[in-house]
Amino acid sequence: MKNTDKVFGENLYALRRERKWSQQDVALKIHVTQPCISRWEKGDIEPTLTYLWHLADLFDMSVDELIGRKDF
Question: 3-state DSSP call for residue 63?
Answer without folding.
Answer: helix
